[in-house]
Specification:
Structural class: alpha+beta
Strand order of the largest sheet: 1-2-3-5-4
CATH class: Mainly Beta
Distance between the termini: 49 Å
Strand content: 25-35%
Shape: globular
Radius of gyration: 16 Å
């Protein structure tokens, strides 16, 4: 198998959540926190699916109801909210003779009723 194919397979596994990119030790604690109000620290990131926080353990948790961090993307922050694992990103819908549509199979981590504080300015939002 050539390097390009290996890279494609690894990227596919990572995108599907089968590879945790160094966060395997923390994955069970996040899973055990589903349905609870928790607080995490990380970085504000934007995606096509909406605003999210990339935790210090490299986990992505989407912020329900927030489309973008705007100019705050890339800043360090602390986010609190009800952690859910649910369908947030629609599944890709393949159609005959058309390009593959973007999406994500499976469930994603989502903060409901989230509140956040940027660590460099201290303001709670």
């Amino acid at each position: 198998m050539n390097k390009k194919k290996v890279l494609c397979v690894l990227l596919s596994l990572f995108a599907s959540g089968l590879v945790w990119s160094g966060a395997a030790a923390t994955a069970p604690s996040v899973q055990q926190s589903i349905g609870k109000r928790i607080t995490v620290q990380g970085t504000a990131v934007n995606s096509k699916a909406g605003a999210a926080v990339r935790t210090t353990a490299q986990e992505i948790i989407f912020i329900d109801g927030l489309a973008s961090w705007g100019r705050d993307a890339g800043k360090s922050l602390e986010v609190s909210g009800l952690l859910q694992r649910r369908k947030f990103i629609p599944d890709p819908q393949p159609t005959p003779n058309a390009p593959i549509r973007q999406g994500a199979e499976g469930l994603q981590y989502v903060f409901a009723a989230a509140r956040w504080k940027f660590l460099d300015d201290g303001m709670i939002r």
